[in-house]
């Protein structure tokens, strides 16, 4: 089944499930293609040279880049999972069952969808932080986070997609593809990513002598670390909000699917 459905819950008919799977697979395929284009092909086609690539840590010092890569490979993985589930469903549908013989379950479905769900919660949280923080600071004073001279080496198209497009795609998935939230595991995943990122960027700061974001260099070390602490709190807030929306969307789609099956 291409959707995460709780046990002992009625499922829609096979054709309906397959159609849903096609919709989800198409969405993931388009999202992966667009993200891959901007993260790889566009940079090579227009010979975009980012000055921080030669520094310690490269683009991985920027949450924007981490988020883009995380979302790109998330959509690729989710697409492969959908293709696997759909193909297995149709393969099983071709098998004639003997009397009293039950259809085989799609193996590893729950495990694969569990990974997809955890990955998605992390992605939508990162995308929300990147989009909200970047544009909030940008509107206050662009020199604090995206100086004017960056425009000469970082095209506006890339800026719009990296800091806006990825967030829109992640938010769109909230209403299109049902996921199941897990307060325990989602909190663990998001907290682990946040702590590793903060630790890595601080280590890069000790090596390079400057922060990756211009406005942090104007702050004291204590204030800079305080900013990351606030960002960590925002990660929790966005993560909690994402889980609530995911749970609401999942139950709503589950109710519709159950009604169609009756």
Automatic annotation (TrEMBL):
The protein's UniProt keywords, in alphabetical order, are: Membrane, Transmembrane, Transmembrane helix
Q: Is Membrane included in the keywords of this UniProt record?
A: yes
Location in the cell: Endomembrane system
Topology with regard to the membrane?
A: Multi-pass membrane protein
Q: Which sequence ranges are marked TM in the entry? A: 21-38, 73-95, 119-140, 160-178, 185-205, 225-246
GO cellular component, as recorded: endomembrane system; membrane
Protein name per UniProt: Androgen-induced gene 1 protein
Q: Please name the source species.
A: Planoprotostelium fungivorum
């Amino acid at each position: 089944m291409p959707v995460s459905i709780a046990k002992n819950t009625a499922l829609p008919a096979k054709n309906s499930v397959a159609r849903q799977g096609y919709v989800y697979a198409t969405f993931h395929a388009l999202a992966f293609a667009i993200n891959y284009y901007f993260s790889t092909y566009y940079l090579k086609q227009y010979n975009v040279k980012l000055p921080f690539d030669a520094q310690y840590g490269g683009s991985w010092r920027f949450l924007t880049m981490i988020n883009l890569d995380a979302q790109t490979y998330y959509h690729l993985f989710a697409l492969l999972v959908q293709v696997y589930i759909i193909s297995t469903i149709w393969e099983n549908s071709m098998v004639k069952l003997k009397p009293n013989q039950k259809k085989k379950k799609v193996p590893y479905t729950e495990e694969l969808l569990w990974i997809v769900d955890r990955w998605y919660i992390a992605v939508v949280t990162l995308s929300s932080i990147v989009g909200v923080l970047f544009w909030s600071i940008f509107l206050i004073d662009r020199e604090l986070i995206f100086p004017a001279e960056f425009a000469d080496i970082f095209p506006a198209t890339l800026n719009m997609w990296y800091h806006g497009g990825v967030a829109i795609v992640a938010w769109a998935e909230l209403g299109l593809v049902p996921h199941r939230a897990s307060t325990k595991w989602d909190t663990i995943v998001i907290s682990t990513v946040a702590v590793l990122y903060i630790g890595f960027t601080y280590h890069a700061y000790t090596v390079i002598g400057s922060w990756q974001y211009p406005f942090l260099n104007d702050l004291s070390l204590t204030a800079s670390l305080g900013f990351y602490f606030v960002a960590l709190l925002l990660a929790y807030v966005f993560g909690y909000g994402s889980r609530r929306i995911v749970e609401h969307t999942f139950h709503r789609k589950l109710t519709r699917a159950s009604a169609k099956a009756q």
